[in-house]
Write a structure and sequence with these properties.
The protein is mainly α and 76 residues long. 66% of the residues lie in helices and 0% in strands. The chain has three helices and no strands. Helix 1 packs across helix 2 and helix 1 crosses helix 3. It is globular and about 40 Å long. It starts with 5 loop residues before the first helix and ends with a helix.
């Protein structure tokens, strides 16, 4: 079983969004806590069908997959 810390994913997402120039709601740049808040809110309210900051969720999925692929490549 490959384990990747959520904090590492959230930090990578924050860095990626800042590089792309995508700004958060009330701050000048993304940080771990902003990303964590968006991910938590979206997972809690998934049933209602509304996703806050879909670009963040898309980036989380992309980076998590990249990290998983990197880790699984190292294991083999």
């Amino acid at each position: 079983m490959i384990k990747i810390k959520k904090s590492n994913i959230h930090q990578a997402v924050a860095d990626s969004l800042n590089k792309k120039g995508i700004l958060p709601f009330s701050a000048r740049e993304w940080n771990v806590l902003n990303v964590q808040q968006v991910v938590y809110w979206n997972t809690r309210n998934r049933e209602q069908g509304y996703v806050r900051y879909p670009e963040v969720m898309k980036e989380v999925e992309t980076i998590a997959k990249q990290m998983y692929d990197e880790k699984s490549g190292q294991v083999e």
